[in-house]
Amino acid sequence: MNSRTAIAPLAPDAPQADARRPIHPLWMRITHWLNALAVVILVTSGWRIYDAAPFFPFTIPTVVTLGGWLGGALQWHFAAMWLLVFNGLVYLALNIASGRLFTKFFPLTPRGVLQDALAALKGKFSHADPRHYNSVQKLAYLFVMLDLIVIVLSGLVLWKSVQFPVLRELMGGYESARRVHFFGMAAIVAFVVVHLVMVALVPRTLLTMIRGGTPKA
Fold it and tell me: Which domains does the chain have, with CATH numbers?
């Protein structure tokens, strides 16, 4: 009886202790911004590389590309590639080790995604508690993780095609891998555009990603 009496008063304080924790831990904010930097460099230098040998009847305006010429773009691209790979591995490992990957992104159901998508279209954004993602956010972030993996794998085929023959064949050959890489990049760009729009609509999400922050009562 005495032990139960001693433990019981601690229970009401648990939610308060949880509320004092940062919404996003420091390691998550650092890896997030490093990933963002890597993606910006990869996309803009990748556009310059694409312009050197386009496979669609259009090119990317030079003003939004990085590198100045093919050699310069390749140097930027490879530098950002290593940043994305190593930082991405740290991000993924810490998400799994801390349990954040499963608590933040699961459970995820088609019904939940549909309901939250319809609510968003009506202007009813689910951001009452920034500690929790709605189903659309969960799906979007999981998609980006998988898309970045596809981009890295297809990039390996473009960089070291001879050394990765099985991976090259799984992607349908070198030229097919180029298209996989391009469309993977395009999907990331689309995500970034939507992400920035959502940040503009809910500015506090940017503040929490910069300083961690705590939800206000």
Answer: 23-211 (1.20.950.20)
